[in-house]
Specification:
homodimer; alpha+beta; L-amino peptidase D-ALA esterase/amidase; Ubiquitin-like (UB roll); 2 domains; 6-stranded mixed beta sheet
Chain lengths: ~375, ~375
Amino acid sequence: MKSICGVEGVTATGIKEGRYGLALVRAEGEAAGVFTSNLMKAPPIRLMQERVRDGRLSAVMVNSGCANAYTGQRGYEDALSMAEIGAKALRVPAGEVGVASTGVIGRYLDLPLIRDQCGRIASRLERSEQAEVLAARAIMTTDLTEKHALVQREGFAVGGICKGSGMIAPNMGTMIALIYTDAAVPAPLLQKELRTAAGRTFNRVVVDGDMSTNDIALCTATGRAGKVDAKEFTVALEECCRMLAVQIAADGEGATRLLEVTVTGAPAEEDASTVARTVVASPLVKTAVYGADPNWGRVIAAAGRAGVDFDPDHVNLWMGDGTARIPLVSDGAIVVDLAKAKALMQGKKVVFFLDLASGKAEATAWGCDLTEKYVEINGRYTT
Amino acid sequence: MKSICGVEGVTATGIKEGRYGLALVRAEGEAAGVFTSNLMKAPPIRLMQERVRDGRLSAVMVNSGCANAYTGQRGYEDALSMAEIGAKALRVPAGEVGVASTGVIGRYLDLPLIRDQCGRIASRLERSEQAEVLAARAIMTTDLTEKHALVQREGFAVGGICKGSGMIAPNMGTMIALIYTDAAVPAPLLQKELRTAAGRTFNRVVVDGDMSTNDIALCTATGRAGKVDAKEFTVALEECCRMLAVQIAADGEGATRLLEVTVTGAPAEEDASTVARTVVASPLVKTAVYGADPNWGRVIAAAGRAGVDFDPDHVNLWMGDGTARIPLVSDGAIVVDLAKAKALMQGKKVVFFLDLASGKAEATAWGCDLTEKYVEINGRYTT
């Protein structure tokens, strides 16, 4: 297995017809969710915020092609109807069906299509690699690759699928992550753990804490593996979320390279995170990465405007490709070997390590380069 | 006259040789300045922050081609030397010479070249349209057009030149504005007025309050026109700054269209400004403007994540080209006529009017579209 079907108690399936897809995942258990902080919340998000408070889900269904966003009261009722369609097909209480939508905004859900697709695939739910791949593909929109993560530990597993590829700040490319574990974790603790893990992973890709109208990450704990070590679960959940987050960054619209920025020597983790996200979001850094230009000045200047206090004249900066790394700036002095640095930027991954020399905290953020292709994709979206 | 030479008591000149230019402006009087808020401040900025506290300038010199940024203590001494070169050539006290630099960062000033250029042009200072054009051209870097503004009022004038064209957030394309007035305004008041005007104009182009390592706006009041009505001066200064700010936005790197966003119905001006700047900075809005796509959803979604409280389901949104305007969203309902809206987006200017329906304050921000050309320019800067 590659992802959710590696978790005990989870079955899945999916269908994709043109731009319209539907994924079904059946898994009963304690549940938690984190949601977009955008004021313009799509109706399914509002519904799920209420539903997650009950702390229990039996199934999740996600449609792609229509975001059911900016659709008002009718959109909310449509989200309810979508959950009822799933409940009937899977024979579970409608109140325990999670729903999420992604796609074009300002249009109503095509409920007859969703009913038809759901009816055709509900009987195909199974626990297999093929099934989790079908589900992961069904939720893709502008994604070029399906996204899976599976973290296996002694006695339990955490697995997830996700979609998302609009990766420049501000991000409007909806991120949807469905995460499962067979560890027994009570809903309130699961909620706390998911919030922390998402803060350190998804929210460091979707820069500026900026999320679309439909962003959602749901986690269901089936409990089939029984109680597990709390610390081990925390680490495993964060690792699963990070694996998914990195895949979203690498699949950024038009991206040719993954950009990873690790900030160390910060006064607090929040400071490190702010600086890392600011650098990763900088169009000038992103275009430099695209052009394989080891532009240390743009990195330090982006850090300098992040609102965190440090002395730019005493920072250390390295650059790497995920394996090797070389110094660019050492205690404020420029030490870059331009030819070597350029050579290190030719691969699929560029990593900056920035030591602020102002403390002991650190954080990592992920993004991608900014290319002509991004402009092309987003300049011609509705036309 | 088009700009600074329309102000009594101002003479100017400039020279541009390849990428290296030098502008000289001679004008004695009370002086004020606003500076980049980036922690990574170039040495000439640090020098000018000290010098402006004295409240008096007799001349300003600006070199282009080298930003004298990230150059440490030697950079600071070089900035002092540059001022001394100007002081000697113009026979004014070195402490009353303002200096600013723009260009490549991480390199030392070429002082012999600056001394040579200064020596050759100092005797050519004059009050003429040709002179102000030479000065405006001398400070250009990636700018495609020279930038002038002149506001004439009964009895006094405010004029300025500026450079700047790196226009996407985060902006690293240095903005330098030299503003002059013949109104008699004491330095402390001038400082206050300049800060307010810059906050409403330059800081609404250079989005997120985000400025480069070298951004500076200086204003000198020669007093030749004597005392003027305080309110009239405030309005004239802001108008001059706005005229310059709009030219910077329109000359954004790779831009094909000026983007103007006016937010009304906000609880406070600061809120309106935050929302307007967030919309103007949104890559998705910018690419939509490039693609002539009347994407109301991206505008409202960008507003929704600005951190200002309003109800997205009750906003009003219009779009125009600077003359005509048509509604896109009315009290939360989508009312756009797509064909008409697309037709309105074919010109050099696209304006969005967003009424948050949550108060009485308003603000305007300026930017430009995001094009493949921007990526090309910034992806191949040092290579």
